[in-house]
Specification:
By secondary structure, this protein is of the alpha/beta class. The chain has 26 helices and eight strands. Strands 2-3-4-1-5 form a five-stranded parallel β-sheet, covered by helices on one side. The chain has a three-stranded mixed β-sheet with strand order 6-7-8. Helix 5 runs parallel beside helix 6 and helix 13 runs antiparallel to helix 18. The protein is elongated and about 90 Å long. The relative contact order is 0.06. The C terminus is likely disordered.
C-alpha cells in the first residue's frame, strides 16, 4: 500500500475534527440546523487552516443520505465519494487554471443541469482570487440567482483581490491562524497514534515554524520522521528548518544587559557558522524583544506570547531586569537594522552594528575630553550667548537715535531702559548653530542618562536651524516615528531640559522631516563602522 502523508491522513472528515475554527463550525452547523444556508460562501484565511477541508465537510453535510445534517454519516455513497474526491455532484475547480472568461462561461452553462444523485450540486473553487475580472463579471448573474439546487463555496488566501461585486453576493467566513497551543495538541495526537517519540519542546518548535498553518506543521513533522533515525530531538528541528534556538536569543539579550559587546558578536558569528539565515535570526531577535515587552506588561501571559510555560517564565525573569524604555529602544534599533540592510549587500553588517550599539555601555565609553568640555559649558556658553547678541542692537540703536532740541540728554541708564524691548527681538539668535552642532554629541550622551530610547531617536536627527531661542532638528523623510515620539509633550520637555543642562541656555525645540537630511548610513561614524567590518553602502537609485 502506498504511503499517505500526515496532512492527508489526518485531514478532518467532520465538523468535530476541525481544529481551531470554532466560530466557523458554529456558524455553519447552526445554518444547517435552521435551514438558513446561503447560496454562496466565501472562505477567506491563510494557507493550511482548513478552508478546503471545511468546504468538503459542508458538501458532505448537504448531500449526506441523512442530510442536510450537521453530522454527516461518512458511510453513505455520497459521503464516501466526496471524501475520495470522485463525486459527480461536488465539482472542485482550481481558480488558477480556470480563470478566464471561457472557463466561467462553461461553468455557467453546466450550472443549469440537476445533480446526479445528491440533493445539491456544489461548486468548490479554490484560490478564487485568481479568476480574471472578466471571468468574475461573467459569473455575477449566476452567482446572484443560481438554481435552487446549486451552492457555491469559494476559498481564497487573498480576499482583497476579489472584486466587491462578487464579495457582496457571498456570505464571508474568515478563518484565523491556528494558535501554537492548538497545533501542539493536534501534533501530540498524531504522535501518539503513529507511535512517535517526540518531546513537547520539539512540537512547540514545529508549531512556531508553521506560523499558524496546521497543514504546514503536519508536513514538517512528516519530514522530521523521515529525517531522524529514531527519537526526534530539538536539534533535528533546528537542523532541518534552520531555526534559531531560544537559548541563543536569551544569550544575546543577556549580552545587551551585561553590556558585553564582544560576546554578542561571538554569539552572532557562531549562529552564522551553524548555517542559520541572518535575516531569520534578526526577525527572531525582534520577536524576542516583542515577547519581552509583552512579558513585562502582562506578567508573561501565555495567551499573548504563545510559547511554552517554561519559556514564558524565562522571558518574565529577563524582562524584570530591563526597563520598558530599554526594551522599546532595542526593538527600534533592530528594526532600523532591517531598514539599513536594504541598502547593503549583507544583512550581517547592520545586525553587528545594532548588537554593538545595544551591548555597549555609553556612560563608560564616552570620550573624556567631551565630558570635560561639558563640565565647563555652563560657565562659558551663557557668556558668549548673551553678551555677543547684546552688543550689536545697542550700537545700532544708539547710532540712529536723535535728541530733540530743548530736552535734557538721555543718560546711558535711561537709554538702557528704553532700549530693552528692542534687545529681545527674535532676529538675534540665542546661540550659533555651529556651537550647537559641536555640542550635539554631548547632548546625546546626556539624553542617554535620562531616557535611552529618546537619545537613540534624537541621534538620528541633526540641528538644522536656530531662530532666536528656537532650535529646529531635522530627520530623514522615513523617520516620522522619531519625529512624532519626540514631539510628545513629556519627551519634548526632557529634550529641552537636556539642552539647557548642556548648553547653559534655555532653548525650545521643533522637529521636522527634511529630504536634504541623509540617513545615518551616510554618517561618518557609520562609514567608519562599515570600514571596520569591510562593508560598503549601495545608494538607492
Amino acid at each position: 500500500m502506498s504511503y499517505t502523508v500526515f496532512a492527508l491522513k489526518w485531514r478532518p472528515n467532520d465538523f468535530d475534527s476541525i481544529i481551531g475554527q470554532n466560530h466557523i463550525v458554529s456558524t455553519l452547523t447552526s445554518a444547517i440546523e435552521k435551514q438558513r444556508l446561503a447560496h454562496a460562501y466565501l472562505f477567506a484565511g491563510p494557507r493550511g487552516v482548513g478552508k478546503t477541508s471545511t468546504a468538503r465537510i459542508l458538501a458532505k453535510a448537504l448531500n449526506c443520505k441523512e442530510g442536510p445534517t450537521s453530522r454527516p454519516c461518512g458511510r453513505c455513497v455520497s459521503c464516501v465519494e466526496i471524501t475520495k474526491g470522485s463525486s459527480l455532484d461536488v465539482i472542485e475547480i482550481d481558480g488558477a487554471s480556470n480563470r478566464g472568461i471561457d472557463e466561467i462561461r462553461a461553468l455557467r452553462e453546466n450550472v443549469k443541469f440537476s445533480p446526479v444523485s445528491g440533493k445539491y450540486k456544489i461548486y468548490i473553487i479554490d484560490e478564487v482570487h485568481q479568476i480574471t475580472t472578466d471571468g468574475f463579471n461573467a459569473l455575477l448573474k449566476t452567482l446572484e440567482e443560481p438554481p435552487e439546487f446549486v451552492k457555491f463555496i469559494f476559498a481564497t488566501t487573498h480576499p482583497h483581490k476579489i472584486i466587491p461585486t462578487i464579495v457582496s453576493r457571498c456570505q464571508r467566513l474568515d478563518f484565523r491562524p491556528i494558535s501554537a497551543t492548538e497545533i501542539v495538541s493536534q501534533l501530540e495526537r498524531i504522535s501518539t497514534s503513529e507511535k512517535l517519540n517526540v518531546e513537547k519542546d520539539v512540537l512547540f518548535a514545529i508549531a512556531k515554524a508553521s506560523e499558524g498553518s496546521l497543514r504546514d506543521a503536519e508536513s514538517i513533522l512528516d519530514q522530521l520522521v523521515s529525517f531522524s533515525h529514531g527519537d526526534i530531538s530539538l536539534k533535528d528541528v533546528v537542523s532541518v528548518l534552520g531555526l534559531v534556538e531560544q537559548d541563543a536569543l536569551f544569550a544575546l539579550a543577556d549580552c545587551m544587559i551585561t553590556k558585553n559587546a564582544p560576546q554578542a558578536l561571538a554569539l552572532l558569528n557562531r549562529v552564522i557558522e551553524e548555517g542559520k539565515d541572518v535575516s531569520v535570526f534578526l526577525t527572531s531577535l525582534i520577536e524576542h524583544f516583542r515577547n519581552l515587552m509583552v512579558a513585562k506588561l502582562t506578567k508573561a501571559d501565555e495567551k499573548l506570547i504563545d510559547l511554552p510555560h517554561e519559556i514564558c517564565q524565562r522571558l518574565l525573569k529577563q524582562a524584570d531586569v530591563l526597563s520598558l524604555d530599554e526594551i522599546l529602544s532595542a526593538f527600534n534599533i533592530l528594526v532600523n537594522a532591517q531598514e539599513m540592510s536594504k541598502r547593503l549587500d549583507s544583512m550581517r553588517i547592520p545586525l553587528e552594528i545594532a548588537l554593538v550599539r545595544l551591548s555597549t555601555d555609553k556612560t563608560q565609553t564616552s570620550h573624556k575630553p567631551a565630558a570635560a568640555v561639558n563640565h565647563r559649558a555652563p560657565q562659558a556658553m551663557p557668556l558668549r550667548s548673551v553678551v555677543q547678541p547684546l552688543q550689536r542692537p545697542v550700537a545700532r540703536v544708539e547710532k540712529k537715535s536723535v535728541q530733540p532740541q530743548g530736552k535734557p540728554p538721555v543718560t546711558p541708564q535711561m537709554s538702557a531702559v528704553k532700549l530693552e524691548p528692542q534687545l529681545r527681538q527674535p532676529e538675534a539668535d540665542l546661540m550659533p548653530l555651529e556651537s550647537i552642532k559641536e555640542a550635539w554629541p554631548r547632548i546625546i550622551e546626556a539624553m542617554t542618562k535620562t531616557k535611552v530610547y529618546l537619545a537613540h531617536y534624537l541621534e538620528e536627527g541633526q540641528p538644522l536651524q536656530v531662530s532666536g531661542n528656537m532650535l529646529t532638528v531635522a530627520f530623514p523623510l522615513n523617520y516620522s516615528l522619531h519625529k512624532e515620539s519626540l514631539e510628545g509633550r513629556t519627551n519634548k520637555e526632557l529634550v529641552e531640559k537636556t539642552l539647557a543642562d548642556v548648553l547653559g541656555v534655555m532653548m525650545r525645540c521643533s522637529f521636522i522631516l527634511d529630504d536634504t537630511v541623509k540617513d545615518k548610513q551616510e554618517n561618518p561614524e557609520v562609514k567608519s563602522a562599515l570600514e571596520m567590518f569591510n562593508g560598503r553602502v549601495i545608494k538607492e537609485e
